[in-house]
Amino acid sequence: MVRRCLKHFQVDATMNEYDSHAWSIIIACLGQEVNGLARIHFCYGEEADTEDGPLEVRFSNGVTLLFKAGGGGDYLVVEQQPWHDNFANWPRDKLAQHIAEFGAYRRFNIAEDSEFAAITGRKLSAVSPIKSQFGRLVGIEMRLEGFLLTVYCAADEEYVWLGECRKRLLNMGASIGDARSILD
User: Fold this and answer.
1) Residue 12 lies in a domain
2) pLDDT in tens, 48-66
3) Would residue 111 count as lying in a domain?
4) Is 122 exposed, middle or buried (0-12, 13-18, 19+ CB in 10 A)?
């Protein structure tokens, strides 16, 4: 089943209070340009696990949205703030010891990354929720002038895909007709 980008933006009556709030935050960014993108990855030693991790999107109106998995990993959390490193205020020696032993999360600017550079400066023109079988918000599809940015959480991990709308829909098993309708 293909979820079409919304033409009328409203909170879904089946969403719970938290999901409705998250959805309202996202909708407020419609028409805004993407000014920055970052991923938060777990690092151990010199290695970063870049397969998953929260996504931070900064818009031209000054709003920064942080997309991450909820506590149980079965819903998407959307916060209207940049990622905060909980260890930022630790003393350097204690922090270095902790990182050496356990690793740590780090923020990576991906706005100039070859894959994501294509959406920097593009306007958010449509959004569509991805819901679990239980009706919880587990992901968001954001249309950015011909590109589809998908943020999805599963089993407490965050996944991000980027592609051209038509290509992404065809990869999801949609027909050419469905791909055309979302671009209209």
Assistant:
1) no
2) 887 888 899 999 999 999 9
3) yes
4) middle
